[in-house]
Amino acid sequence: MMGGARTTAADPAVQGLDAAVYAVPTRYARGDGTLAWDKTTLVLVTASAAGQRGIGWSYTAAAAAPVVTGILSEVVTGRSALDVTGANEAMSRALRNAGRPGIGAMALSAADIALWDLKARLLGRPVAA
Q: What integer is the mean pLDDT of 82-96?
């Protein structure tokens, strides 16, 4: 844990982030005038703590998955699962030399969503609350 928030007995620690890559075929070929495609790549992130799992995802290149499992997981593992804002700041800082825009931003987004979902599940509340 690189300077992360310490957990208490009431604050379960993030046990890590996992990432899986899925290529979802489109029913028909798609295009926007600059690019054509026949599938959409999705990176699914799972965050875990205290027997619960939260999920988040981003439509991005498969290259975002190792950013999640390497750079981002390293800085959130051991942090309080209830301090999602602090985890987001730590992840943003960790991307400084790797590149925050592009793949870094997409990986961070999916991880952030997974951490918010995890927090909601730990508290037994909807994410919107």
A: 95
111 closest CA partner among 40, 23, 24, 48: 48
Q: What are 30's two structure tokens?
A: 């798609």
Q: What percent of the chain has pLDDT over 70?
A: 92
Backbone phi, psi, residue 101, to 5°: -75, 170
- Which of 59, 74, 57, 51 lies closest to 114 in space, CA to CA? 57
Residues 6+ apart with CB under 8 A from 101: none
* Residue 1: per-residue pLDDT: 43
State pTM to two decimals: 0.85
CB 80 within 8 A of CB 6: yes
Helix (H) or strand (E) holding 57: strand 52-59
115: closest CA among 25, 4, 43, 13? 13
Cβ atoms 23, 39 nearer than 8 A: yes
> What token pair was written down for 74?
């390293």
